[in-house]
Write a structure and sequence with these properties.
The chain has 469 residues and is α/β, with parallel strands linked by helices. Helix content is 28%, strand content 19%.
């Protein structure tokens, strides 16, 4: 059952927030946020500002110390609070069930996620859902169905559109483009020649291509013009960066050690060079990587806050047996479980930091729609894993806002708090540039200038520490 009031977002006229003062004089703004610590995500600096909002857009941003004063219909004194742009989740798969779709979207909004990318839409969860989203819900950009390569003898898939040739790939890209998609999503079995065909055809429509790599390696994909690469660990072609001459011939201990050592090797440097020169956005999805790699039992499960997940047992949503172990965790020996926890996972974090240090553009995405990845909370958990990798909080915040907006071609309307941009905003009770966990301390969320119910608790729970780290 939907918890959101009829009509979507809560109208300003009906809010009785503590500290909200009605102004007697009609001003230039519907709402003024006064004395709020505005986080400039382009510089990582914080300073008190007054922000005016009218008709869903930001109309004024002035330093609180300037001596000027904004007038408005309502004024909210936010002294001691912090204002950031709404968060952008670059990897959200929505369920086919329309009632659960709304629950998921409401929960995302409540945790400050105001824009999402659906990189591979289930039936009924793509362009048609995007076009009917109303006030108070995240703005959505979407791919059509995932495109996978299969030979005719292999049969079909119920979660993807399959193609068997470059001609069929081009035909499918045209079909999806004519259907109004914002992105083309390719899956792991697509070989380089079909990736090339997809990129060429998509470019004629001005559409970017995202890839969950496999048959096509990351370096190949970057050189072919893919715009976004998703998943930096488990389930992607990791041999490409392993610091060994013959990764396939190595023992498990040798392979994992060489994987963790990847940033010191020439293969990694070649990959980074291509990613940076081609401007590819990498969405590591660390939370699902951790869940799939280390989720052999339920040890990590509490940290994913699955008790908050809407309809977790819905068929086609979280799969079977997720309470005991992660469904994507492979059948591995006890010795390999230790390597995964003590060598592989620290290696994933170090590689993520190395990508950041090398200037690769990183965006924040969670893979909502997979087991353990709870809408909303997983976004903050994901950012916490970036911090564990050693990336500074202010940089993580920029990835979660401005870089996400840029990745979607929306930086002219969201991603920073600036005049003329959409008033998708999050008010926090603590400074996220000092500790990224402050993003969980949400007081208010605004989408298009309207307050929406906040789902986040007032205090952030401690981040669970994975084994071996």
């Amino acid at each position: 059952m939907s918890r959101r009031r009829a009509g979507g977002a809560i109208p300003l006229s009906s809010i009785l927030w503590v500290g909200l003062v009605a102004c007697s004089t009609q001003g230039e703004s519907d709402l003024v946020l006064e004395n709020v610590g505005l986080v400039d995500v382009t510089t990582g600096t914080v300073a008190p500002h007054d922000v005016g909002i009218r008709d869903g857009s930001i109309t004024a941003v002035i330093p609180s110390s300037s001596g000027g004063r904004l007038s408005g219909d309502s004024v909210l004194d936010l002294s001691g609070r912090f204002l950031v742009p709404g968060f952008v989740d670059l990897h959200v798969h929505l369920p086919p069930d329309s009632l659960v779709q709304e629950e998921v979207l409401e929960q995302l909004a409540g945790y400050g996620v105001t824009t999402i990318l659906n990189p591979g839409a289930r039936e009924g969860a793509g362009t048609e859902l995007r076009d009917r989203l109303g006030p108070g819900l995240p703005r959505m950009r979407t791919a059509g169905p995932i495109i996978e390569y299969l030979r005719p003898s292999q049969g079909g898939l119920d979660w993807a559109v399959t193609v068997e040739s470059a001609a069929a790939m081009r035909e499918e890209v045209v079909r999806q483009a004519n259907g109004g998609v914002d992105l083309i999503k390719l899956y792991a079995g697509v070989p380089p020649e079909l990736v090339e065909a997809a990129v060429e055809e998509a470019s004629t429509f001005g559409l970017p291509v995202a890839l969950h790599a496999g048959e096509t390696l990351w370096t190949e994909a970057a050189d072919l013009g893919v715009s976004m690469l998703v998943h930096s660990g488990y389930g992607t072609p990791m041999d490409e960066i392993v610091n060994l001459e013959d990764p396939a011939g190595a023992s498990d201990p040798e392979w994992y050690a060489a994987y963790a050592d990847a940033p010191s090797g020439p293969r990694f440097r070649r990959l980074v060079q291509s990613l940076v020169s081609q401007g590819v956005v990498v969405v590591p999805t660390l939370a699902i990587t951790q869940a799939a790699g280390l989720g052999g039992d339920a040890t990590l499960l509490p940290g994913f806050e699955t008790h908050l997940a809407p309809e977790a047992d819905l068929p086609g949503w979280w799969g079977e047996g997720w309470r005991d172990r992660h469904p994507q965790h492979g059948e591995v020996s006890a010795a390999e479980e230790v390597l995964l926890a003590e060598v592989y996972w620290p290696g994933v974090l170090d590689i993520t930091r190395a990508l950041f240090d090398a200037g690769v553009t990183l965006g924040v995405g969670t893979d909502v729609g997979n087991a353990w990845i709870n809408p909303g909370t997983s976004f903050h958990y994901e950012m916490g894993l970036y911090a564990e990798a050693g990336i500074p909080p202010a940089e993580i915040l920029a990835m979660a806002t401005l870089e996400g907006a840029r990745a979607l071609g929306l930086a002219d309307s969201i991603g920073t708090v600036a005049v003329g941009k959409r008033a998708d905003l999050v008010v926090l009770s603590a400074d996220p540039t000092r500790d990224i966990r402050a993003t969980r301390q949400i007081e208010y969320v605004l989408i298009g200038g309207d307050f929406v119910p906040s789902a986040a608790p007032p205090r952030s729970p401690p981040l669970p520490q994975p084994p071996g780290r």
